[in-house]
Each structure stands twice: as structure tokens, then as C-alpha cells.
Design a protein that fits this description.
single chain; 294 residues; alpha/beta; nucleotide-binding; acetylglutamate kinase activity
């Protein structure tokens, strides 16, 4: 009897997921993959399994990954200085070589994990097919080296992969007009790609549970925000640190037509599935106009 109750509980979970599977079947979603979930092996496997499941139930996922912790580790190994200005890594020529090496290594590792599960995936750089074209980025007016501000997303290569039933795995390196490599903030890359692809969802896997009205009060987690509410929160001074540019990116993406933007705790096992396939969700979602009135 206990076994039967377990089976019925599993069936209930599947039934609860059904309307969400139906709603987003055939829709493009972008998953920005970073934080601790990229460092811990078991978490990494679970995230890739979750994305594979989303693919197999009919979503069209694109993964955009970072690699900041691993880059910092290799920069230190090389005896180089790590310096940030306005949250952006100062990237000279030697550092850029390390950035490209590390991100491409991570990229192929994630691609292989997806292939092992039985889902076709192709790892690409933003340089491939001129996917991410950039201008030089300045931080607080300061030259920070080979860091790019995305000016154009050429979606043809992504469309081609999706149409051929392949999951694109993108590392955030772009090219300028002279085809020099530039490091791109992974959040910026994910937002730009989600906007250009008209994604229905953009999910950020982070190292926090979501957005708090009061960061010192864990009970003040906000489950959903309209664009107006998100902008009011930004101007209130309650949001600081790395969450400030992340929420700004989210708002910009939603304003540009992305349906929903989710901020999730990537340290929580199956956070993507819990957010996408349950009524309650677990993180913070920022809603576009159509979602608010839908």
C-alpha cells in the first residue's frame, strides 16, 4: 500500500507538470548556468539532466555558461593578478588567453555530459558564426582590456542547431570588428541571446535563493515581480552587490520581449524543474506585460 501511495504521488507530480509542458512545448528557453552549480560535480550533473529533461519534453533549451571561479583559479596559477572594476574582470592579453582556454574547456565538458545522457548538444563560442559581436566595454570610464559590450547577436547558428534537434551550449566570448576575442559577462550574454531569440523564459542559476525585499531577512523572498515592481525595488536601495546588475539585466530582457525571467538557487537540486513545473515555484520570477495580463 505504501508503494502504491508513492506511485500515486509520482503520478501527481507528472499531472501537475502537464499544463506547463503543454504551454512551453516548442518554445525557446535560455538557461544561464553559473555559480556553485558549475563547480560541484554532482550539482553540475543534475543541472545537465534537468536541461536534458526539458529538451526531451519539448522545450528548446539554450545553455549560456560562465566560469568566473575557474578562470580566477587559473589566472592565479599563472601568477597573474586578478582585478575587477565595476564588477568586470580586467582582461589584458595574457588573461584573455586564459579566459578563452578555461571557458572552452568548460564548454566541451558540459557538451559531453549532455551527450552522455543521450541528448545531442554542440558547444560553441560566441565567436562561432559571429554569434556575439562586440564593441569595447569600459567600466566607470576605465579601459578594462579585452572585455566586450554586445552590439549584435547573429542568431542563425542557434536557429540551425535548434531546428536540427541539438542543444546549443554557448560560452561568452565575442569578436570585435577586427575579430579580436573579448570576454563577455555571462549574464549579459544570456540576456542578449534570450532577447534576440525571442525566448519564452530566461533562467539564471545563482548562489542565492532569489530576490529579497530585505537581504537580511530570509523570510522576505519575493516570488514574483512585475517590471514596475522590479524597477521600484532597484531604485529603493534595498538591492546591492552582484544582484543589482542581474535584476537590471532581467528587467531589460523582459522589456525587450522575453516572457519570464527566473532567478533561481542553482545549489538546490532540480531547481529548474521545481520552478518550471510546479505552481509554487522556488525562486523569483520577473513577468513581462503579456504574462501579467495573461
Amino acid at each position: 500500500m505504501q508503494d502504491m501511495e508513492k506511485y500515486l504521488e509520482k503520478a501527481g507530480v507528472l499531472i501537475e507538470a502537464l499544463p506547463y509542458i503543454r504551454e512551453f512545448h516548442g518554445k525557446t528557453i535560455v538557461v544561464k548556468y553559473g555559480g556553485s552549480a558549475m563547480v560541484e560535480h554532482e550539482l553540475k550533473k543534475n543541472v545537465i539532466r534537468d536541461v536534458a529533461l526539458l529538451k526531451l519534453v519539448g522545450f528548446r533549451p539554450i545553455i549560456v555558461h560562465g566560469g568566473g571561479k575557474e578562470i580566477s583559479r587559473w589566472v592565479e596559477k599563472a601568477g597573474l593578478e586578478t582585478r575587477f572594476v565595476g564588477g568586470f574582470r580586467v582582461t589584458d592579453k595574457a588573461t584573455m588567453e586564459i579566459v578563452e582556454m578555461v571557458l572552452n574547456k568548460i564548454n566541451k565538458g558540459l557538451t559531453s555530459m549532455m551527450e552522455k545522457i543521450g541528448v545531442r548538444a554542440v558547444g560553441i563560442s560566441g565567436k562561432d558564426g559571429s554569434l556575439l559581436m562586440v564593441d569595447k566595454k569600459y567600466a566607470n570610464g576605465e579601459d578594462i582590456g579585452y572585455v566586450g559590450e554586445i552590439k549584435q547577436v547573429n542568431t542563425e547558428i542557434l536557429q540551425t542547431l535548434l531546428e536540427n534537434d541539438i542543444v546549443p551550449v554557448v560560452c561568452p566570448i565575442g569578436s570585435d570588428d577586427q575579430f579580436h576575442s573579448h570576454n563577455i559577462n555571462a549574464d549579459d550574454a544570456a540576456c542578449a541571446i534570450a532577447t534576440a531569440m525571442g525566448a519564452s523564459k530566461l533562467a539564471f542559476l545563482t548562489d542565492i535563493e532569489g530576490v529579497y525585499r530585505d537581504p537580511s531577512d530570509k523570510s522576505s523572498l519575493i516570488s514574483s515581480l512585475t517590471i514596475q515592481e522590479a524597477e521600484e525595488l532597484l531604485s529603493s536601495g534595498c538591492v546591492g552587490g552582484g544582484m543589482l546588475p542581474k535584476i537590471r539585466n532581467c528587467v531589460d530582457a523582459v522589456k525587450a520581449g522575453v516572457g519570464k525571467v527566473h532567478i533561481l538557487d542553482g545549489r538546490l537540486v532540480h531547481s529548474l524543474l521545481l520552478e518550471f513545473f510546479t505552481k509554487e515555484g522556488i525562486g523569483t520570477v520577473i513577468l513581462g506585460e503579456e504574462e501579467q495580463h495573461g
